[in-house]
């Protein structure tokens, strides 16, 4: 199969990946940066700091992902069900991020910036997959 044919065949998912990368990247940087700033500069417990940032950015994430990242993908019916699924996926992402904070800061005694690395590199891959297949699929 030629590269052009392959690109046409997979243009939907490539567009979603790019849009999710832009939106999710911005949100991830806001959550990770907000977590680090609140934990480090304001001296808030790291796990509480992540929780506060999660609460602030989850609603914004739903609006941005449903209207931009996954626009035109899947059915837009059953919005209540989709909303519950989205918040479930975000809770899974939150739990994985809390695990990174717990392991790297609380358990291993590392600096508050250590969890930023997996928060930025691991969690977005997990949440993109779940959002695409289950929430907006």
Key words describing this protein structure:
137 residues; mainly alpha; 80% helix; 0% strand; globular
Walkthrough of the structure:
The chain has 137 residues and is mostly helical. Helices cover 80% and strands 0% of the residues. It is built from 6 helices and no strands. Helix 2 runs antiparallel to helix 3, helix 3 packs antiparallel against helix 4 and helix 4 runs antiparallel to helix 6. It is globular and about 50 Å long.
Can you give me a brief rundown of this structure?
The protein is mostly helical and 137 residues long. It is 80% helix and 0% strand. The chain has helices at residues 3-9, 11-41, 46-69, 79-107, 116-121, 123-135.
How would the blueprint of this fold be written?
Elements lengths: L2 H7 L1 H31 L4 H24 L9 H29 L8 H6 L1 H13 L2
Helix pairs in contact: 2-3, 3-4, 4-6
DSSP summary, beta strand count: 0
Spatial gap, N to C terminus:
26 Å
Helix content: over 70%
> What is the CA-based Rg, rounded?
16 Å
- Please report which band the strand proportion falls in: under 5%, 5-15%, 15-25%, 25-35%, 35-45% or over 45%: under 5%
DSSP helical segment count: 6
Order of secondary-structure elements = HHHHHH
How does the overall form come out from the CA principal axes?
Answer: globular
């Amino acid at each position: 199969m030629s590269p052009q044919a392959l690109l046409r065949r997979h243009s939907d998912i490539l567009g979603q990946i790019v849009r999710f990368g832009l939106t999710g990247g911005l949100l991830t940087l806001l959550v990770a940066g907000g977590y680090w700033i609140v934990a480090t500069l304001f001296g808030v417990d790291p796990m509480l700091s992540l929780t506060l940032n999660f609460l602030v950015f989850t609603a914004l994430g739903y609006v941005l992902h449903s209207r931009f990242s996954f626009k035109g993908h899947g059915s837009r019916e059953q919005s209540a069900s989709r909303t519950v699924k989205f918040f479930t996926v975000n809770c899974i992402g939150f739990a994985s991020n809390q695990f990174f904070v717990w392991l790297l800061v609380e358990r291993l005694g590392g600096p508050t910036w250590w969890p930023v690395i997996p928060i930025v590199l691991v969690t977005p891959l997990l949440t993109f997959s779940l959002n695409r297949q289950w929430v907006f699929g």
